[in-house]
Please model this.
Amino acid sequence: MTVRIAIIGGTGVYDPSILDEVRQKRLETPFGPVWVKIGNYREREVAFVARHGEDHSVPPHLVNYRANIWGLKQLGVKSILATAAVGSLNPEMKPCQLVFVDQFLDFTKSRPQTFIEKGVVHLDMTDPYCPELRATLARAARELGLEHHTAGTYVCTEGPRFETPAEIRMFRQLGGDIVGMTSVPEVVLAREAGICYATIAMVTNFAAGISPNRLSHQEVVEVMAENTANLRRLVMRAIEL
Ligand code: HPA
Model:
C-alpha cells in the first residue's frame, strides 16, 4: 500500500492515536533525517509527523520544514492535513473554534522557503491552501457539529515570542484573522512539492492586546488538550470522506 495522506501534528497533537499498527520510520532527505510514523486507518496508510518533535522540543523558527515535506513527498503523500494552534485577531473567531485557512500573510524572517536552488521559478499562490481539502474539512466539521470558519487569513510570525499589541493591531489592519508561527513555509513547500495541503487552525486565545490576560504557552497547550478529541474526530472524518 502507498501512503497517500499525512497528518502534520502541531502544538498539542503529538501522537497518531487514530492509527493502528503504527511503525516508526527514519527517512533520509537532502535536508536531514525525518522521523515519520506510519499506520493504518480504515484500510488506508496514513503518515504522521510531529512538527515540533514528540516532546515539543523544536521551536517554530527551527522546525526543519524542508525535511518534513521532502520526506512526505518521498513516501508518495498526495494530501497533508496540518494542525496549528493560533491566536485570533478577529472577534468572530473565538477560542475553541476551528478555521480552515485560505490565505496567509508572511512575516517570517529567517526560514528557508524553497526547494528550488537553480533557475527562476515563481510559483502561483492564488490558492495556497488546497480548496478541495478545505471543502472536505468543512463538510466533516458540519457533520460533526464542530464550530468552524471555512476561510481565514493566517498571519505567520517568526516567533518564538508572542506578538506585541501594536503588531496585532497592524496585522488586523492588513486583513489578518489569526496568528501563528508555523504555516509558512510549510504551505509554500507543500505547494512546491505538488502536495494538496490544508491547515486546520484551532483558536486557543485572543491575540496580545485583545486578550485581557498576558499570553502563555501553557494556556495554548491547555486549550489544545481540551480540544484534542474534536481535532481527532475531524481528522478521522475528513480521511473517510
Ligand atoms: N500568537 C502566535 N502564535 C500562537 C498564538 C498567538 O497568540 N496562539 C497560539 N499560537
About this structure: The first strand starts at residue 3 and ends at 9.
